[in-house]
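--- STAGE predict ---
source: upstream dedup step, 1 unique chain passed
mode: sequence only
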Amino acid sequence: MTNTLSAISPIPIVLTIAGSDSGGGAGIQADIKAISATGSYACSAITAITSQNTLGVTAILPIAIEHIASQLDAIFSDFTVAAVKIGMLADSQIIHIVAEKLRHYQPNIIVIDPVMVATSGDALLADQAVNDLKQQLLPLATVITPNLPEAAVLTGCPIPKHDQQLDEIIAALQTLPSQAILLKGGHFIASANSHDWLICGSRVTCFSGRRIHTSNTHGTGCTLSAALASYLAQGLSLEQAVTRAKHYISQAILHADQLQVGKGHGPVHHFYALHSKMASITKNWNRLQKPVPIE
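--- STAGE serialize ---
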């Protein structure tokens, strides 16, 4: 007799390497939620502790290099990691140790969200750290997921305001040493819709969706890249994974206003599908509990 439990495929494991967001909307916390909500198992290595909420970031404490290394050794020595998602890396030292460990353990899938520019427009990485990121980590990446301000930092191009500048920045991104680039176009206000462009060598594929008007978009970049890593870990092709990840983040943004978290720019709704299902179950349960009149 076949053992049913032994026939179940193991859940894909996704490691997120990023900073902690005390407000729970971005960083490690958003990654864990997104990875879990999209069907994979999340583990983490924290690179920095931030004090932040929906109103902003008030402090950043980088984690000691030796402890980042020990976290990565602990994960890779025990878990079979299907994919790695990389977010906030605070400085050159952290970039170097993460690159060293990835070269040593050689995970098959690496998704890099190059967190370099704050929502305010302030730089989060020094110029040398940006160069180290490009030289040390981008060659290891399966796909990188910059938004337009981050793409501008990586290429030296201006943030595109019209189609010609967009074409120029895409051409510049094609020279970077990563296998693929998912350029996130949420900042491209010249378009009424929200476009993302998947760049694989000379091939550019546009993924379009309707622009959702809400102020609750905290953690969108972290969430999209984590979902992308999760779907890639499950064996989807890059284009399939991008399609699924874009649908997931679009729905998480669409349902974000339901959360009513914080006084500023609130987080997206990572568990919108679960909450919708639970609401339906509760409604049906309450309906069944109503007394049936006896005639």
